[in-house]
Design a protein that fits this description.
Number of strands: 33
Largest sheet: 8 strands, mixed, barrel
Number of helices: 36
Distance between the termini: 160 Å
Oligomer: single chain
Radius of gyration: 55 Å
Helix content: 40-55%
Length: 994
């Protein structure tokens, strides 16, 4: 039986309308009212309906008997309730509880199910339910309480045959006199799909996280970790339970924990994503560098509820970067980036060292600040090149010069590459900076030498070759212009010239210029018009290039031959021939312009000791370094020349006065006396300089060289390591030197030598420890000649061996006589020259002298210099051990002025170190001398050696040496060198006082 709603029946109408009202506001939309409240409202509305509804025995006329105002109110209420029912967004219907037939449906049900209102009202609930659910329909109605918050799950068919899942709530009511139910339907299929989609997305996300090669983690804002992916567990070897909370902290490298904590605090305070590099311990204990990134997740109010992060292993990248940094350090090359719009700059670490900037300052903030690191010309060039790269979009290579602050210029080569936007606009620059100082200096030096040679030897072979090459270039230019109808340009460095840069080159062709199968440059043909160069064009250009290559190679061969003929092969300095040519040119120029020319003759002091101690290979290297230092002290128009051995000549052209030469001489002294570090060996040299000036000291090369040579001997006689201007009487000295050298050959045979003796004292007691034998020469016509005059001559001539042997025997005989007279129990110290010590039979000679003179071996003290014991260590050690076996005591004389190596010195069987008088003389005022003396004394004592100071002349010096712990001393404070008779008298007096 089907029933239709016809609007008749007051009670049914009111009951229906109020049910719809509560369905709208309670049953479907909010679902938040409690059961008690809902039942109370339904009860209230039912009671209201009952009071207004006529009894079942009444007919419609009874309704019509109501006042018109009540009827109007009821009808208005019915309209409102029906509107609410129809407007409800959820499907709703009323069905008969007995027949299950649909009595009324709203628009939402019609839309959701696809049935028309008429079709619905011809159907029952069973028409939209699957057959297998029929029994469930009856059960669900029977078991429901009829309250709106009771939900029943069901499946409904739509008009198109789809089966959908729904939730149904029932409310029992009386509708048009029938027992009916109001049903509100909620389609849960969409919710199920959303939940399934959510679960699917969660599964997909978890799958993605677990398959990622990075570590993934989730943490609360307080740093408490709540989740990790499997990669974390595999990497650290920790379990998930061990990792949760703050279990992430132990794998962090201890040195990175505080930094990571600070970065985390900054991120949580700012709420911004962050990244950081740190080291993380792997399961096997190995730390790897990681790149950590994290982003916050916020709720609807914008509060951070979680942090999601990843850790990416960058260890290989980090190691690669370290190797790159090492390679840059070795290659002296750094990289940079620059934004011309913001002037932001990035430098690699090595770049700070190359450009002399403190890395703590960071890179320059502006281009002007960067340019200030260079010379003014290079600063301008840098700005020009940056502008050129930015405007042209082309890579540029250019050299810059900067000053280190010590007078030496350094050079760097900059490569600037544009970084372009897709539109072609240059948005940034990047590139490299490489230290090319050595190469640049070599290029500049070579260029300078070539230019000078062209000026000086204009009529020589080099000028002839250069002129011929120019003719080849000119002919090549004309040939290419005629053959290819193009403009021709050549550059000595085969780079684009200003001609090409200033013209709109549309086409070009380049070929290699080879010389003996080696490329030396590029020859290019350029056209301002668009054209295709044919193979014949290229072949033609290549033939021209071959001609140029042959000409260049021929020129280079001539240059090499010329250079070899005019330069010293060891130092690459001008030799005597080239020096003579340059001096002649300088003399002519000085005479025309009323200038002066100075010749500085240089001789290295103690250079022979270097060859003897370290060998000739290191000696050659030292000469090369000396040449470089000398060359840096003079102007480009001056000349530094090596004359052979350890002699150099510096020619100063066009000076104003002799004082200019003195200034240069001071510079030369300073640079040469500064220590040389060669093959991890420190070498200290001295230098003596003789100076002769044009025109006062001579008007030709020969005279000036001779007089400068004479002056240098005077400088040596005055103590070396100084300069001396020529004086006319110096030639007489040179003649005397030659005469003395000749007279020395007969000095022993003529019995012209005699000995002086200087006592040595114990500083603590004042007792005489012994005497030192000092040789003197009584010339028959010149009188007494100082040892500093004839000893160097004797060493140069080799006569020192004969003289030294005489001194040794005479001193031993004298000591034996004094011992027999009971005048002394101390030692006799005798100086041994290097020439003596190197004699193959030296030890036999000592043994023979001991036997012949009768001196007690332990009272014979042989004094040798550091240079003697440091030549041929094995041989020296062998000889010293033999002498020690004879009972002879050994001392190092003038200690502190040579090249002793402590690793060898401690092996020698020595007895005493003698501090050179140059250190004693400056005590106690000079801190440097005091420090050296103290170091020698402490070192000597640590080696078990006695220490004696020479040259003590004042009580202050004596006291200071005592305070430093010096054992013994000698000098004018105690006694000057005494003749044998005076010394005997002195010893008798000391003996009687004792």
């Amino acid at each position: 039986m089907r029933h239709r709603y016809d609007g008749i029946g007051y009670g049914a109408t009111v009951g229906f309308g109020m049910t719809v009202l509560f369905t709208v506001f309670v049953g479907i939309i909010a679902r938040t009212l409690t059961e008690r409240r809902l039942n109370r409202q339904v009860k209230f509305m039912s009671e209201e309906s009952d009071t207004a509804q006529p009894s079942e025995n009444n007919d419609i006329s009874a309704v019509r008997e109501l006042p018109d105002t009540d009827i109007r109110d009821l009808r208005e209420s019915e309209v409102r309730h029906r509107e609410l029912f129809e407007a409800n967004p959820h499907p709703m219907w009323i069905f008969d509880l007995e027949t299950l037939a649909f009595l009324e449906v709203n628009e939402a049900a019609i839309r959701a199910y696809g049935y028309s209102r008429e079709t619905f009202q011809q159907m029952t609930l069973l028409d939209i339910r699957p057959t297998e659910d029929f029994s469930l329909v009856v059960d669900s109605i029977a078991n429901t309480s009829g309250r709106l918050n009771d939900l029943v799950r069901a499946r409904h068919y739509t008009s198109d045959g789809r089966l959908i899942d729904v939730e149904v709530s029932f409310h029992f009511l009386e509708f048009n006199g029938r027992q009916a139910a109001l049903a509100a339907i909620n389609d849960v299929e969409e919710r199920n799909r959303a939940q399934n989609a959510l679960r699917t997305r969660e599964a997909e996300f978890r799958t993605l996280v677990e398959t990622m090669p990075q570590i993934v983690w989730v943490t609360r804002p307080d740093g408490w970790h709540i989740d990790f992916n499997q990669c974390w567990l595999d990497y650290t070897g920790l379990t998930l339970e061990e990792s949760l909370g703050f279990g992430w902290n132990p794998p962090f490298h201890p040195e990175d924990r505080s930094r990571a904590a600070e970065r985390w605090l900054e991120a949580t305070n700012s709420g911004e994503p962050y990244e950081i590099e740190y080291r993380l311990r792997r399961w096997d204990g190995v730390y790897h560098w990681m790149l950590g990134r994290a982003v916050p997740m916020r709720d609807a109010e914008g509060n951070i509820v979680k942090w999601f992060g990843t850790c990416t292993d960058i260890d290989d990248l980090k190691r690669t970067q370290e190797r790159l940094d090492e390679a840059q350090l070795v290659g002296k090359i750094g990289d940079w980036e620059y934004n011309p719009h913001t002037e932001e700059t990035v430098w690699s670490p090595i770049l700070y060292k190359l450009l002399g900037r403190d890395s703590r300052l960071g890179p320059p903030e502006t281009l002007d600040e960067c340019a200030s690191l260079f010379h003014s010309e290079s600063a301008s060039l840098l700005k020009e090149m940056v502008s050129l790269v930015t405007e042209s979009g082309r890579t540029q290579r250019f050299d810059l010069r900067r000053n280190e602050g010590d007078g030496e210029d350094t050079y760097v080569q900059v490569i600037a590459v544009p970084r372009k936007h897709d539109s072609g606009e240059v948005v940034g620059l990047f590139g490299t900076v490489q230290d090319i100082s050595e190469r640049k200096q070599a290029e500049l030096a070579l260029y300078t030498k070539v230019q000078q040679q062209r000026l000086i030897a204009a009529l020589g072979r080099f000028a002839l070759s250069a002129a011929c090459l120019d003719e080849v270039y000119t002919e090549a230019e004309l040939t290419i212009m005629q053959g290819l109808k193009v403009e021709f340009s050549e550059d000595s460095r085969f780079a684009l010239s200003e001609l090409i840069a200033s013209h709109g080159v549309a086409s070009r062709v380049d070929v290699l210029v080879d010389a003996f199968e080696q490329s030396i440059g590029v020859l290019g043909a350029h056209s301002v018009e668009t054209r295709k160069f044919s193979a014949d064009d290229v072949g033609f250009l290549q033939e021209v290039a071959n001609i140029l290559g042959a000409a260049v190679e021929r020129q280079r061969a001539n240059e090499r031959l010329s250079h070899m003929a005019l330069h010293d092969p060891l130092t690459d300095l001008p030799n005597r021939s080239l020096l003579t040519d340059r001096i002649n040119v300088a003399l002519s120029d000085a005479e025309r312009h009323h200038k002066q020319v100075a010749l500085l003759f240089l001789d290295l002091d103690r250079f022979k000791h270097v060859n003897d101690v370290f060998g000739h290979a290191l000696g050659d290297l030292l000469l090369h370094e000396v040449a470089k230092r000398l060359s840096r002290c003079v102007r480009s128009e001056d000349t530094v020349s090596r004359q052979g051995g350890d002699e150099f000549v510096v020619a100063l052209a066009g000076i104003e006065n002799e004082q200019d030469a003195a200034v240069i001489a001071d510079k030369l002294l300073t640079v040469i006396t500064s220590p040389f570090i060669l093959e991890e060996t420190e070498i200290i040299l001295g230098i003596s300089i003789g100076i002769a000036c044009f025109p006062r000291h001579g008007k030709d090369v020969v005279t000036l060289l001779r007089n400068a040579d004479a002056a240098i001997y005077v400088a040596k006689e005055l103590g070396r390591n100084r300069y001396q201007f020529y004086q006319p009487e110096m030639n007489m000295r040179a003649l005397e030197r030659l005469t003395l050298g000749s007279d020395l050959h007969q000095v022993v045979a003529r019995n012209e030598l005699f000995l002086m003796y200087q006592p040595q004292f114990a500083l603590s007691t004042g007792d005489i420890l012994g005497v030192e034998a000092l040789v003197r020469w009584q010339h028959p016509s010149r009188g007494l000649i100082s040892p500093c005059q004839f000893i160097p001559i004797a060493e140069d001539s080799g006569l020192i061996v004969q003289i030294g042997n005489w001194v040794l025997e005479a001193a031993c005989e004298q000591h034996a006589r004094w011992m027999s007279q009971g005048l002394t129990m101390g030692s006799m110290a005798v100086n041994i020259s290097a020439h003596q010590f190197r004699q193959a039979n030296f030890c036999d000679l000592i043994s023979d002298v001991i036997s012949r003179t009768g001196i007690q071996p332990d009272l014979l003290e042989l004094e040798v210099t550091e240079g003697v014991v440091m030549q041929g260590i094995d041989e020296v050690l062998h000889k010293l051990n033999i002498l020690r076996g004879l009972g002879v005591t050994l001392a190092i004389d003038d200690f502190g002025t040579g090249y002793s190596s402590l690793s060898y010195l401690k092996q020698f069987p020595l007895h005493r170190l003698k501090i050179d008088q140059s250190f004693s003389r400056e005590l106690p005022g000079d801190q440097g001398s005091s420090a050296i003396a103290k170091a020698i004394i402490e070192m000597g004592h640590s080696l078990g050696l006695d220490v004696l100071a020479e040259g003590i002349e004042t009580k202050e010096q004596e006291y200071h040496l005592k305070m430093l712990g010096c054992d013994a001393g000698q000098g004018f404070l105690y006694a000057k060198p005494l003749s044998a008779g005076d010394c005997e008298h002195y010893l008798r007096g000391a003996s009687s006082c004792g």
